[in-house]
Amino acid sequence: MQREPQATNAMLMARRQAAIPRGVGHSHQIFIAKGENAEVWDVEGRRYIDFAGGIAVLNTGHRNPAVIEAVKAQLDQYTHTCFQVLAYEPYVELAERLNAKAPGDFAKKTLFLTTGAEAVENAIKIARAHNGRSGVIAFTGGYHGRTLLTLGLTGKVAPYKTGFGPFPGEIFHARFPSALHGVSVDDAIASVEQIFKNDIEARRVAAIIIEPVQGEGGFNVAPPELMQRLRALCDQHGILMICDEVQTGAGRTGTWFACEQSGIAPDLITLAKSMAGGFPISAVVGRAEVMDAPAAGGLGGTYAGSPMACAAALAVMDEFEKHDLLQRSRDVGQRITASLQALAKKHTCIADVRGLGAMVAMELCKNGDPHQPDADLTKALAAEATKRGLIILTCGTYGNVVRILVPLTASDALLDEGLAIIAASLEAAFAA
């Protein structure tokens, strides 16, 4: 009997190209066969260190044993009922625990959905239902999802918005601060005020939505002063403040929610990605009276808050408490930042090293000039790192930012091995 040839990355990628639309991009031409904590092996048996974490989804690592065990136990009970038809306790317990964790000395309620974009869309729906207003202010460089409404909120055209317009109306973009690029907090607040003067009166704005750390935008950190002044501005005009924590939430930045570090309590928080360790779930957490604004039946979804995902999310929260992963996030961030800062002293192309907790990035520019983003070098570095056994991601408005989202459960030795590969890859990319 003739044996089937062993699958290779190239063979599988050829099948992928024939069966799947090009709009589903790929940063690496690799097919995974196995994942374990912060390491993966491809179908050809090659091992990689994972500094991408499924784009901030695997804070507790690939196949975390506690998460897997919780899902297996749930599978033996029931897999789906649709919560709106037959309720189940894990959904309620998870909501209770998130309500307790969210900042703010007020009653809270939580809604579960399936994706980050769904969470953002529903946060806007809830805000509009609460105050009867329609306008929304987002920020340049922000990323909020791939649906039409969330694309309208997203402040980056290529590749997300190209060819998909027109987008929903009454969405406006303020400037996001960046010390590297000469945009101050005063500039950002002034741009919001300018929107009130030029585009829509404040009394018609339902919400201002902001990422405490921009994800796709390049890991730009919102200064605490900005968050505090936005909170005051929202209070002044009766506008709801929404923090999009789809990427920053679930402990990535050293606190469960990144907005905690600014000392403010938003009205609504969106959460997804790593909250269930790889199982699809998202959430909107917010003021009880705001969350109760939509009428019965106005919120929900067939697969929203699935039993398996709720069980996984509860296990993730237990793992954070058991292993003090919030402190680990801070420690991992310090180790990565120190390594990249040392690298920046040797290479002028590293214009900036920035981040919050274990959400760290470096921006590459020609001769360190912020006005000359070096996307080619960034792409070459990422490709070289892959050859050397490290998975990393790029991002930023100009594609010149290398971002690190390694699982918090990675050992120090593995972190150092990956960081050494980044250093060697940068040298090789220069030499090429």
Q: Strand tally, please?
A: 15
> Helix content range of the residues, please?
25-40%
What gyration radius follows from the Cα positions, in whole Å?
22 Å
The H/E string reads: HEEEHHHEHEHEHEHEEEHHHEEHEEEH
Low-pLDDT residue spans: none
Could you describe the largest sheet, including whether it forms a barrel? 7 strands, mixed
Pfam families: Aminotran_3
Enzyme class: transferase
Protein name: 4-aminobutyrate aminotransferase/(S)-3-amino-2-methylpropionate transaminase
EC number: 2.6.1.19, 2.6.1.22
Would you mind describing this structure in some detail?
This protein is α/β, with parallel strands linked by helices. It folds into 2 domains: 9-63 and 324-431, Aspartate Aminotransferase, domain 1, CATH 3.90.1150.10; 68-323, Type I PLP-dependent aspartate aminotransferase-like (Major domain) (Aspartate Aminotransferase, domain 2). Helices cover 38% and strands 17% of the residues. The protein has a 7-stranded mixed β-sheet with strand order 4-10-9-8-7-5-6, sandwiched between helices. It has a 4-stranded mixed β-sheet with strand order 1-2-3-13. Strands 11-12-15-14 form a 4-stranded antiparallel β-sheet, with helices on one face. Helix 7 (185-198) runs parallel beside helix 8 (224-237). The relative contact order is 0.15. It is an enzyme of class 2 (transferase).
